[in-house]
C-alpha cells in the first residue's frame, strides 16, 4: 500500500471563504489570489471552489495559461507585471491585465506592438517599499501611461505592510489618497487583512490567505472569529509506537527527554513532506481527533507525538497534522493551520506552500 500521508483540498471551504470576502466587502469585486500554485492547493483543484470570483490574481504566466485552459474567460491579473518585454505578447494573446510598478515596464509597453490596448494596474509604493512608484513620482507615471496607445484603462493599486498589525493602514491610505485624489480609475488596495480587519471596501479586494482558511492577523484573531474554514487537511497515520522510561530520549540530538513513563507514536510525516523541521516539541497535532503534541525533532520522513491523551491509539491511528480530523464523541475535530504555524515560529502561508510534491493531494468536499 502507499505511504499513508496525503493532503486534501476542501472545495466547499474555498467557496465559503470566498463568500466571506464578498460579505466583508459587499460593494467590491473580488480577486481570488492563486499565486504559488494557489498557495500550494493546486490551481486546478482551487479553481473548482474559487470560480465564483470576479477575477484571478497571480504572478506566473504559465499559471495564467493554466487558468485559461480551465476555460476561465474573466480577468486575470499579473500581480508583479511583466518580467521582460516579450511577456507582453502573451498578455495580448491571453488578454491578461498586468501591474505596472517601474519605469522599465512603461518603456516596454511604449515599444510593444499590439492591436488590443492593455488594461493595467499602476502600483504605488505607499510604504511597503517593495514594488511601485513613490507617491511623488506616481502622477508622472500615470501621465506617461495614459499617453500610450498601447494602454486602455488604468487602475490604481497599492499594498499594505501592516494591515494585520497595530500600525494599521492609515499612514499608507493617506499617502495613496494624497497622490491619487483626482486621478480616474478603479482602485485595488485591500488584501485579506485590510478587507477583514479594517473593512476597506474599494473597487477590487484581493482575497489571498483568507480564501484558504487562514486568519490574516493570527494570533490577534483566529479563523473562527472571521468565519473562515480550512481549505487544506494534511493527514497521515501512526506507523509505530514506543514505550519510554524516565530518562529516555527521542530523535536526533536527543532534544527530548522523558520525565516519566510515556508512550509515543511515530507518524509517517517529516520535513521531506513539507512539515516544518524547526517545529519543536509540543507543536499541536490530532491523533484520532484528540489534540496532543509532537515530541523531539522532526526527521526527514517521520515525527513523534505524545500518546498520553490518547492511550487507545496504536498503529494505524489517524493523525491530522492540520485541518479537519475525525469526529470525537460525535463532534468534528479541527486543528487550524495557524495553530501549527505559530507553534513552529512561522505562518500558515509557508506551511501551505511547502507541502512537498511527494505528498498525494486530492480534492474533497
CATH homologous superfamily designation of the largest domain: Alanine racemase
In the CATH hierarchy, the architecture of the largest domain is: Alpha-Beta Barrel
**N-C termini distance:** 24 Å
> What is the percentage of strand-forming residues?
25-35%
- Structural class per helix/strand content? alpha/beta
CATH topology of the largest domain: TIM Barrel
Count the DSSP helices.
12
Return residue spans where pLDDT drops below 50 for at least 5 consecutive residues.
Answer: none
**CATH class value of the largest domain:** Alpha Beta
Strand order of the largest sheet: 8-7-6-5-4-3-2-9
Q: Which shape, going by the Cα principal axes?
A: elongated
Radius of gyration: 23 Å
How many beta-strand runs?
A: 19
State the major sheet: 8 strands, parallel
Helix content: 25-40%
Average pLDDT? 97
Q: Give the count of structural domains.
A: 2
Amino acid at each position: 500500500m502507499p505511504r499513508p500521508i496525503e493532503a486534501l483540498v476542501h472545495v466547499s471551504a474555498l467557496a465559503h471563504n470566498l463568500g466571506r470576502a464578498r460579505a466583508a466587502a459587499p460593494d467590491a469585486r473580488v480577486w481570488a489570489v492563486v499565486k504559488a500554485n494557489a498557495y500550494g492547493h493546486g490551481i486546478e483543484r482551487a479553481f473548482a471552489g474559487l470560480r465564483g470570483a470576479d477575477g484571478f490574481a497571480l504572478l506566473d504566466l504559465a499559471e495564467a495559461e493554466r487558468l485559461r485552459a480551465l476555460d476561465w474567460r474573466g480577468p486575470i491579473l499579473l500581480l508583479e507585471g511583466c518580467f521582460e518585454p516579450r511577456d507582453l505578447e502573451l498578455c495580448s494573446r491571453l488578454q491578461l491585465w498586468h501591474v505596472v510598478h517601474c519605469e522599465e515596464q512603461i518603456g516596454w509597453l511604449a515599444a510593444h506592438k499590439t492591436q488590443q490596448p492593455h488594461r493595467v494596474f499602476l502600483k504605488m509604493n505607499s510604504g511597503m517599499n517593495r514594488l511601485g512608484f513613490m507617491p511623488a513620482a506616481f502622477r508622472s507615471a500615470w501621465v506617461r501611461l495614459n499617453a500610450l496607445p498601447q494602454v486602455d484603462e488604468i487602475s490604481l493599486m497599492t499594498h499594505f505592510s501592516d494591515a494585520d498589525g497595530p500600525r494599521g493602514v492609515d499612514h499608507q491610505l493617506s499617502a495613496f489618497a494624497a497622490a491619487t485624489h483626482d486621478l480616474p480609475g478603479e482602485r485595488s488596495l485591500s488584501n485579506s487583512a485590510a478587507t477583514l480587519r479594517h473593512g476597506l471596501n474599494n473597487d477590487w479586494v484581493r482575497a489571498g490567505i483568507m480564501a484558504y482558511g487562514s486568519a490574516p492577523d493570527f494570533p490577534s484573531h483566529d479563523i473562527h472569529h472571521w468565519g473562515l474554514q480550512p481549505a487544506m487537511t494534511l493527514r497521515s497515520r501512526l506507523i509505530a509506537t514506543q514505550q519510554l522510561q524516565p530518562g529516555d530520549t527521542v530523535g536526533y540530538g536527543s532534544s527530548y527527554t522523558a520525565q516519566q513513563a510515556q508512550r509515543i507514536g511515530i507518524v509517517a510525516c517529516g520535513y521531506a513532506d513539507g512539515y516544518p523541521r524547526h517545529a519543536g516539541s509540543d507543536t499541536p497535532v490530532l491523533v484520532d481527533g484528540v489534540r496532543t503534541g509532537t515530541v523531539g525533532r522532526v526527521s526527514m520522513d517521520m515525527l513523534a507525538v505524545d500518546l498520553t491523551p490518547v492511550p487507545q491509539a496504536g498503529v494505524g491511528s489517524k493523525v491530522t497534522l492540520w485541518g479537519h480530523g475525525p469526529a470525537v464523541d460525535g463532534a468534528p475535530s479541527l486543528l487550524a493551520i495557524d495553530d501549527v504555524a505559530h507553534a513552529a515560529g512561522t505562518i500558515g502561508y509557508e506551511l501551505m506552500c511547502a507541502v512537498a510534491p511527494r505528498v498525494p493531494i486530492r480534492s474533497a468536499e
